[in-house]
Write a structure and sequence with these properties.
Low-confidence stretches: 1-5, 88-97
Helix content: 40-55%
Radius of gyration: 22 Å
Number of helices: 8
Number of strands: 5
Shape: elongated
Structural class: mainly alpha
Strand content: 5-15%
Order of helices and strands: HHHEEHHHEHHEE
Number of domains: 2
Distance between the termini: 29 Å
Length: 189
């Protein structure tokens, strides 16, 4: 939650706010919080600015359009916003390189030998690289975005996933879903 008290905004004779809130005011809520790693909800912004839900959403959406905030849906009806972390040139270049060397991939136990094993190692590398680029991914994302380009000798996506997902769990920085969970996370290494 933001640490600031709600502001004392002036109201007109009809009880409406007489001042208009610039979008920057919503951005200030993100700057003033003590835990900068925690995303905020519209309620957090609403409380900090003493404004309506619609006003909070409008300001947040304007900041997203101006690329000053990022947003993501969480749950069926929830949404969070955060200030994106700017990447340095070396971080962007590091993303182009793989996080682990081929030796680590080769040590992972995958079924097959020879060219079959090599194609499965390539598929594992592709799944890992996908997770690095999409740090919160579902099984369906892997099946839709990785499997078609890297089938590794499997005729079905489920057969492919049954071989790849146990190996993916063993790679550095991978946080597999909890039991019955759906989201795979890349935490870095």
């Amino acid at each position: 939650m933001p640490t600031e008290e709600p502001s004392e905004r002036q109201r007109n004779e009809h009880g409406q706010y007489s001042d208009r809130l610039p979008a920057k005011t919503a951005l200030d809520v993100f700057e003033k919080r003590t835990d900068r790693g925690r995303p905020l909800t519209a309620n957090d912004v609403m409380e900090a600015l003493d404004c309506s839900r619609r006003t909070a959403h409008n300001k947040l959406n304007e900041l997203v359009e101006r690329e000053m905030l990022a947003t993501r849906k969480v749950g069926a009806r929830g949404r969070v916003w955060w200030v994106p972390i700017e990447q340095t040139e070396s971080q962007v270049n590091a993303e182009d390189e793989s996080f682990v060397d081929q030796g680590v991939i080769e040590e992972i136990d995958l079924p097959g030998t020879g060219p079959t094993l090599e194609s499965r190692q390539d598929a594992l590398r592709a799944a890992y690289d996908y997770l690095i680029k999409h740090p919160s991914a579902k099984k369906s994302d892997f099946l839709q975005d990785v499997f078609p380009e890297h089938p590794a000798g499997y005729e079905t996506a489920d057969g492919w996933w049954n071989a790849i997902q146990p190996a993916l769990k063993d790679l550095p920085g991978v946080d597999p879903p909890e039991e019955r969970g759906h989201i795979w996370h890349f935490l870095g290494g």
